[in-house]
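Batch 3, record 17
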Amino acid sequence: MKTPLAAALSAILLSVAAMPATAQTSAPRTQPPVQHPLPRPKPKPKLSNKLAVRAEGLVGIERFTASETFKGIFDSPKGAIFGGGVDVVKGHWFVRGDVTHFGKTGQRAFDLNGQVFRLGIPLKVSITPVYGAAGFRGLVGAKWVAYAGGGVGSWSYSESGDDPADALSLRKTGYLGLGGVEWRVHPVVGIGFEAQYAAVPNAFDGGLAADLGEKDMGGATAAVRVIVGRW
Amino acid sequence: MRSIVSRVFQGVLVCAVAAGTLVASPQQPAPARTAISTAVAGPIDRGLRSEIPRRSAGTIDTGRRGPYLPDRVLVRFRDGRSRSLRAFARAGVQVTSIDRPAYADYDVVRLAPGVNPEEAAARLSDTRGVEYAQADYREYANFVPNDPFYKEQWNLPAINLERGWDVQPGASSSVIVAILDTGLAFENIVFRMTAGEFTQNGVSYPALGEIDVAFAPAPDIVTPDRIVAPHDFIWDDADPVDMDGHGTHVTGTLGELTNNNQGAAGVAFNVKLMPVKVISSDWDDIFNSPNVGSDDVVARGIRYAADNGANVINMSFGRNGPPAPVVESAMRYAVGKGAFLAVAGGNDFQNGNPTEVVAQLAGSIDGAVAVAAVGSDLQRAPYSGTASYMEIAAPGGNFDLGGGPGGVLQQTLDLDLVDTFQLDPADYHAPRFDAFAYFFFEGTSMATPHVSGVAALLYQQGITNPAAIEAALKRFARDLGPPGRDDQYGAGLVDARATLRGLGLAK
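Prediction for the assembled complex:
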């Protein structure tokens, strides 16, 4: 539909064209009206209501709740984690299953009034949570999706050294909350930035952790996810 | 005052070395001794051994330090026959090869990469026809010294030392342990001294006059480069030779040369030794030494040891009576300089259990511990004092348990040639300090070097804070007596391995 301004401009142009061209040497001719293309409305972005299964990998840094214990054994309360899983999405909902892993070698130690002394004896620790989570997601822009959810999982823990008698393996149930944003960089590839907090209460009942009164195996994690699949 | 806290057992004869029963004559000549030779041809020629090769604490990780071998399980079928790869695949375990090595009645089953041996073994164990399946756990040597008298040393396994040595074999020469005691048989030397007359239990002993007395190093303790900064506060010189045997015995428990196919073993057998003589013996009295063991001498000895780099100070002596602020100040000074102190808890339980002043001080200082004694039955030795300041226990021996072998065995001076004043006056003669034998002693003096030795091993592990050493010794002690700390054993019996290994993250 023409706007009044466009119609007026067209009329002016037509009247100018119809005027005798006194200075013109060629035969008069008519000009076709100028056609301005109309802007096509963009489709409003929305999350697909189709069920989509996506694969994901993640890397991150976890700061363990038992921070003094981890600092004592590893000289840092933080550690790198990596993992991956499957993410099923439909509309505003998602369900995820992930497995992650933390592995590091520190030293056996003891404490005196909270100050930890390391003994130079290697101690290899690994933590492997397997968890499922579900939550809600929504668009916050054409290419951004925010999400939040919670879940439950099983945290597998093992420690070992050069003496088999020192080996320990245990599994505990934990809970987590998570949230983040995903950025679609390609129709089937996204990058996510996620924060997690996991609680695995009463997981540690021995060792340096017990001496320091830190029993929780969980922690806070900042992770980057790579997601492959439809949105 | 009991200057020396020990008892001696020699064969079937208990030699009651009663300090203070000798009364030196006040008319003796001015105290003096002169070294007239450093070349002694003593009657004992055992030779000196090369040092034990040093080994690290095992921090190198070659990828083979796991609890079990990562690529295999050991499987035996009930019929004893091997199975095919396919049979294992049916059991859900991916394997790459099956071998039956010589002298084995089981198969060594190599796992496919990524297969966890523990999980595979568990899965196979649940499989029909399998008698057992296990991961191939690594075995570690329990270091047992080859010293021939080691089998008599019940006291070392009692503190879990064999497995402690697996963690930290004998420390190294970077750790210095000072032994404040009656001295140490550590050098070849002849002193010309004057032995005056004295009375013993009312019996007069004649003056021997000016005599030449030979000293030699204890061959199972001393190597040429092992002694650092020796000092004698009794004679005010740098020759703290032992004229009693107590200091040499204590030093032996602490650091007797070990795994050398000779004699006995010691706890921290690679450390450097700093003999500091602060306790006078009967022969020091007979030779009229310028000083005797006293608070002054002990305090100066403690400061000397700390100033000269001692990391651990063994104090197998004590006294009763009023407080000793001069000693307390010296002990705090030493701890402040980074030295850990182990102090004998006292032997007078059967004599009214008086307060041992130096041990009491140790109980009040973080970085110093008072040591009680247990016998081979790991019960408190009957002489071992009980008190609120007692902090830890160690083997001190108990002759009530089988006589001599109930005591703590170490090399020391041959007491038959030392204690000649025990003979009748007619047989009394000059002593020799260049002959050695292995004797059973008992006392909290004998218990204390066990603690000092483990402290030295811990120091080698990197724990250099005296208070932390004390905390570790007590934290990992084996609880004896009533649960928790008690006045008989303190925190319990020192446990070398547990102390050296500390804690895992969750175990």
